[in-house]
Design brief:
Helix content is 48%, strand content 0%. By secondary structure, it is mainly alpha-helical. It folds into three domains: 14-103; 132-199, no CATH class; 225-351, no CATH class.
């Protein structure tokens, strides 16, 4: 996921996005196909509620999609329900944009006045509903949660009730991108997803739904695909520096918790990270999530590989583009041996995780997903360790 930085997310407007969305040939086909299928006498009676015919009957065309008609309460929710009913990621993504349009003020153009949503559209629940434990909780990292609860002392982002109560405030701040503090900032898609969660009633979970405590958000910096080889290792390890590559991997939340509260190392300072890099690499690569750092927001493989490559440059790894590493490690050096063993431990587990994940995904496909959650595999590293044995 790319970090949009501090640039405010533009309001969704009818002219810029909603008209094009509803005029998409795939969307028109989907709406017309739903109408035809659900009008069949043999159709499931429960699906009759999705029938939505254009004025005058017939089939929907892009000529029907005008602002005055689509923005009416009784019409906009019907469009949303039909879009959300489909299992395709494309149409679900469109429904999230539609929800953001509603919360951004139902504007026709960027200069239009806002229409405040009163929160009472007749949304039809289904199995595609956005929920806190499945979709929203994974947007908040441990650092986000700690910053808001312990540092800013406002509310707990890992508590459903508190997030629900503060949802409008959260939506506003992630949209203008002054939250999460220190980044990474949410993508437009994530913000639209949060709007859809609010529009659908801010549900905690569906029946028997199991969520994950693993955040899917990535650190602010990751190596680009053209900067790594097929195994995920940096193409030029000697070019990695603390200022340009390693420092940006640590969020402001990491620094606040480790330095301001615990009085320990300072992730913003080269001297501190270079001094404790053996300890840091150990914590980054531990198989036990309860002692791994970050606990519920593990770094992607690219970042682990980059940190290791930087750490073993020498006893004093490269600080910036103006300096180079000094005191190269001897292969028998204790710190070098420790870091290499930590990295190999992580690499072995990463390979096993990929194999276990493939098995689980195949099982999900075979059993239509019943009882299988990919997030469960990511959350339970002990299962992966057992697989190694």
């Amino acid at each position: 996921m790319s970090d949009p930085g501090g640039k405010k997310k533009d309001d969704v407007t009818f002219d810029d996005q909603i008209y094009n969305l509803l005029s998409d040939e795939y969307v028109l086909y989907h709406i017309n196909h739903e109408n035809e299928r659900n009008q069949d006498p043999k159709a499931d009676p429960n699906n009759k509620k999705y029938i939505f015919l254009p004025p005058g009957g017939g089939e929907w065309t892009k000529e029907h999609m005008n602002y005055g008609f689509v923005s009416k309460k009784e019409n906009r929710v019907k469009f949303y329900n039909i879009l959300k009913k489909d299992d395709s990621l494309r149409l679900k993504g469109y429904s999230y944009v539609f929800a953001a349009w509603i919360y951004d003020g139902l504007k026709e153009t960027k200069n239009s006045a806002e229409i405040i949503y009163e929160g009472n559209d007749d949304f039809i629940p289904n199995n595609n509903d956005v929920t806190y434990i499945k979709d929203i909780r994974p947007l908040f990292t441990d650092c986000d949660q700690w910053n808001m609860k312990e540092f800013v002392k406002m509310f707990d982002l890992h508590n459903y009730d508190e997030v629900k109560n503060e949802n409008f405030k959260i939506y506003y701040h992630v949209k203008i991108r002054n939250m999460p503090k220190g980044g990474p900032m949410w993508s437009d898609k994530d913000i639209n997803l949060f709007a859809a969660w609010m529009y659908e009633g801010s549900k905690e979970k569906l029946t028997n739904e199991v969520g994950s405590t693993i955040s899917r958000m990535v650190p602010r910096f990751t190596l680009k695909d053209n900067e790594i080889d097929k195994m995920g290792y940096p193409l030029k390890p000697e070019d990695l520096s603390f200022t340009d590559h390693i420092g940006p991997m640590f969020s402001e939340g990491h620094r606040n918790k480790m330095h301001d509260v615990r009085g320990f190392l300072d992730f913003e300072k080269y001297e501190s990270v270079n001094k404790y890099k053996v300890l840091i690499l150990d914590r980054l690569t531990r198989p036990d999530l309860s002692t791994r750092m970050p606990k519920n927001n593990p770094w992607p493989k690219k970042n682990i590989y980059a940190f290791y490559a930087w750490a073993i440059q020498g006893k004093n790894s490269r600080e910036d583009v103006m300096t180079g590493p000094t005191d190269p490690y001897d292969e028998n050096d204790d710190d070098y041996i420790k870091m290499t063993s930590y990295f190999e431990r992580y690499r072995d587990l990463a390979d096993i995780y990929a194999k276990v994940q493939t098995v689980v995904m195949n099982a999900k496909a075979e059993f239509n997903g019943d009882g299988f959650k990919e997030a469960d595999v990511a959350a339970n590293v002990d299962v992966i360790v057992a697989a190694k044995k």
